[in-house]
Amino acid sequence: MAKGVNNSDASALVIFGVSGDLARRKVLPAIYHLFKDSLLHEKTIVVGTSRRELSVEDLLKQVELCVLENDNVCDPAVLQAMRERFTIVQLNPTKGSDYEALHAKLQEIEDTQGVCLNRLFYLSIPPGVYPAVVKHLGEHRLNGSCSHNRAQSRLLVEKPFGYDYASAKELIESTNRSFSEEQIFRIDHYLAKETVQNILAFRKHNAVFKSIWNAKNISRIDIAAFEKIGIEGRSEFYEQIGALRDLVQSHLLQLLALTTMDMPRDITSSQEIHKAKQALLEAVEPVPADEVRERTIRAQYRSYKNEVSNPTTTVETFAALEIAIASSVWKGTTIRLATGKGLSEKRTAITITFGQADDANHLTFRLQPNEGIDVELLVKKPGFAHALQAATMDFRYADTFMSSNHPDAYERVLVDAVRGDRTLFATAEEVLASWHILQPVLDEWSKYSDDLKTYEQGSTAESLLESS
Ligand SMILES: NC(=O)c1ccc[n+]([C@@H]2O[C@H](COP(=O)([O-])OP(=O)(O)OC[C@H]3O[C@@H](n4cnc5c(N)ncnc54)[C@H](OP(=O)(O)O)[C@@H]3O)[C@@H](O)[C@H]2O)c1
Question: Would strands 361-368 and 347-354 be described as parallel, antiparallel, or unpaired?
Answer without folding.
Answer: antiparallel
